Amino acid sequence: MAQLSDDCFAFGGPLIGLDAALTLLLERTAPVTGVETAPLAAARGRVLAEDIVAPRDVPPHDNSAVDGYAVYFDDLAPGAETALPVKGRAAAGHPLAGAQARATAVRIFTGAPMPLGADGTQAGGPDTVLMQEDCVETDGIVRVPPGIKRGANRRKRGEDIVAGAAILRAGRRLKPQDIGLAASIGLTRVPVRLPLRVALFSTGDEIREPGTPAPAGAVYDANRFALLAALQGLGCSVTDLGILPDRFATIRDALAGAAAAHDLILTSGGMSTGDEDHIKPAVEALGALHFWRLAIKPGRPIAFGQVGRVPFVGLPGNPVAVLVTFLRIARPLILRLAGAEAVPPRLYRLRAGFAHDKKAGRREWVRALMVRAPDADAVVRKFPRQGAGVLTSMVESDGLVELGEDVTHVTPGETVDFLPLSEVDA
Predict the structure, then answer these.
(1) Which residues of 245-397 form beta strands (DSSP E)?
(2) Are 210 and 278 within one domain?
(3) What is the pTM of this model?
């Protein structure tokens, strides 16, 4: 059959590159969600709305890093064993009552505050702790070996956090370690962004809901469920609008209704140029499209626009293209709208264990597995089936080899950029 054009999207204007598209996305959007305070127990994964400034030092006092004996370094005999009377005991939560006298040792345990000196301060008190394994205590006398350094095994006040320091910055998606850090300065609640409200639907007369009959020519809707999981992993509040038929009026009305109560509209399918692809004209009837064709593979027919004032992203219909474009294009936009800081995923330079040809002028992602042979550097091998509909390739691969616009050929052994899927997990 004769082909009139070697590019089925050629009439839609020039393709734009990924970097230009991402720049446009981030320039034309801003955080849209409000702010609330959340208890620490419910803050994991939420986006911090304000900097957290420490009201106190952590630790709040000098303390012992080991179980042992607190001594004044200047009381130790240089080059010889020192015998000191043990006068008192200090444990975590139970500091020594009063000051520690010179020429004495105090039995001390990990985390216990260093005893005070005669001047009533830790600075004037004992400055060194010997590990109990290195000492021998008999009848209230501890024998201390030579060779310890001044200040050994003593943790300083504010070693971890200094009062007045910003310990967590606005825009951070809170991880378990962040929650622990906030608790360490005594917080019980933190200011966070409200969840981004996302309306999600699929389009296509051939798409069926899992669990229902699928007649000839029908396929089950994998895209919507994958996107729902990805959105929930990013902390979004998702309204699942289901599957819409290929009807212009139905899609237009659904878009208008979604825009009234959501911060973002995300769709899959219907973004090409066929007679049954109605997403593009429906969006243009209600707002505008800023781009809808990118110089990428997979996922060229992807759109960014707005329905009224609500951002819209239309993803392709093929499941691999949906996931790849979500991870590399929709995800940064979602984080931006949710108030999260922009942290580009890290690409790792690894050796290619495959040959590959591609067109110049487009960004391309090759699904790949990372293989590490004994006594050798890691190598990435191309998944054998690269079709845009082969969803198992995303399950069985470790990540994506990202090939820039200027690359036309990959030779085994050369270094390529590898994006582990773990870098863009929710």
Answers:
(1) 264-268, 287-291, 296-297, 303-307, 310-315, 348-352, 356-357, 363-372, 378-382
(2) yes
(3) 0.84
